[in-house]
Amino acid sequence: xxxxxxxxxxxxxxxxxxxxxxxxxxxxxxxxxxxxxxxxxxxxxxxxxxxxxxxxxxxxxxxxxxxxxxxxxxxxxxxxxxxxxxxxxxxxxxxxxxxxxxxxxxxxxxxxxxxxxxxxxxxxxxxxxxxxxxxxxxxxxxxxx
Length: 145
Fold this sequence. Notes:
- It is extended and about 65 Å long.
- The protein has a domain at 31-94.
- 8% of the residues are buried.
- The protein is mainly alpha-helical and 145 residues long.
- It is 68% helix and 0% strand.
């Protein structure tokens, strides 16, 4: 039954059946998929490189920094690692901390919202509106700066 049919039948909670295809993206598996997605390839390469260093006797903590440097030097996840390298190190070497994860996600959401608000505000400024018109529009749209 489609969603409208369920609603008409008085069913409040819409049932959902989900089938998920899982792919192995470890090095040497699903190369065609990895060729199609640079980020996925980079992640797979990054993890494989860490495993190589560990196979040579280094600990995870000893492996992460040199692998990040190698990847940046070889343009693998370069932009991401330059921007989030310290977070990657913390995530891989620290024990998982749910509260820390939530805090990081909130901070990233605030940063993204700030970028969107700044972009919106600049758009308003470029429309040659008066300060009063900008203020009214922001109040009407419940934007708070």
